[in-house]
Write a structure and sequence with these properties.
heterodimer, A: about 80% helix, B: mainly alpha, 3 helices
């Protein structure tokens, strides 16, 4: 019951600061731009590229899988940054302004407070992600060929799990640190670091959460059990750690 | 091949909605982190990122003691 109360309050807050609006819109734009630019790349180069008169460029039309991969690549770069910036203050800002004291005076446990935040954040993320990737797929099947469905579902699920991991990391840092900028920097370093580590040392790091976005781009169907399991495990671990941290320290002050 | 204008239309509509919402919020808010006229210029002239920047950073930090 306490969890429901926190979720309701958090939803209200999310509406009040228009996060329900701008995060989905941003992902919508990201998903929209990539297929369009891929399709009209040669026209754009001709118009604005400053090429000499009479230059002929042949750009082979990308396959729909390539465009899908490029869209996910956009999500991985800009999407990650925006997700972290959107949720960096979810806990730290309330802690800084002293709102948590008012809230936790009532018999609300730290765990339900943390999970309430996490659930609402992930819901906003899920809606944004689905909208963004949905419009990207719509444009891809309009401008290119439709993508085969079964491989797509797996890829989407893997990518969603990776974004859930980003939310978990950001919320955890938000619990530990009071300054929003430090939260953002730490979360971005951890998330991008894990991902770069996984793509540089493919042989030893293929089981880490950082491998998930690359697997999703490649629409892999094999050797995906370990990274998925390790990601779920890491999310559970950071959740448990932050609740423990809140309990063991003078977190309210 | 569908018409180029129809393809870009959603982009324009989204942009428009974003700007309107940001402006309504700016109008209603008593105080913002930067001067109001500056935010108005940013929302109007910086496409996409401008309104989002306002919605993220525009509000004044509050303090409960």
């Amino acid at each position: 019951m306490k969890l429901v109360m926190i979720i309701k309050k958090e939803c209200l807050e999310t509406f009040r600061i228009h996060r329900w609006l701008w995060l989905p819109v941003f992902f919508l734009l990201l998903g929209l731009m990539q297929p369009l630019t891929s399709n009209f790349l040669s026209d754009i180069l001709e118009q604005f590229g400053g090429l000499p008169e009479g230059a002929v460029i042949e750009i082979p039309a990308p396959s729909s899988e390539e465009v899908y991969g490029a869209t996910l690549g956009q999500f991985t770069q800009l999407g990650t940054i925006v997700l972290v910036l959107a949720f960096m203050g979810s806990i730290s800002e309330e802690r800084r302004s002293g709102e948590v004291k008012m809230l936790l005076l009532r018999p609300v446990s730290y765990a339900s407070y943390w999970f309430g935040k996490f659930i609402v954040s992930s819901t906003v993320m899920t809606v944004s992600f689905l909208l963004g990737i949905g419009i990207a797929l719509f444009y891809i099947q309009l401008l290119f060929e439709p993508i085969l469905m079964p491989a797509l579902y797996g890829s989407l699920a893997m990518y969603w799990l990776w974004m859930l991991f980003i939310i978990a990391v950001t919320t955890t840092f938000s619990t530990l640190i009071k300054r929003q900028t430090v939260v953002a920097v730490c979360s971005l370093i951890v998330v991008f670091g894990m991902q770069m580590f996984a793509s540089m040392f493919t042989s030893i790091a293929s089981w880490t959460p950082g491998a998930l976005p690359n697997l999703a781009v490649a629409m892999a169907t094999e050797e995906i059990v370990l990274p998925i399991a390790s990601t779920i495990f890491s999310i559970a671990l950071v959740a448990w750690m932050s609740v423990l941290y809140m309990k063991k320290t003078d977190w309210l002050y | 091949m569908p018409d180029l204008f129809m393809l870009v239309l959603p982009l324009i509509i989204i942009e428009f909605i974003l700007k309107i919402i940001a402006f309504i919020d700016l109008y209603r808010r008593e105080s913002t982190s930067l001067p109001k006229w500056l935010w108005a210029l940013i929302i109007l002239f910086v496409n996409t990122i401008g309104p989002i920047l306002y919605l993220v950073l525009g509000k004044q930090r509050r303090q409960i003691t």
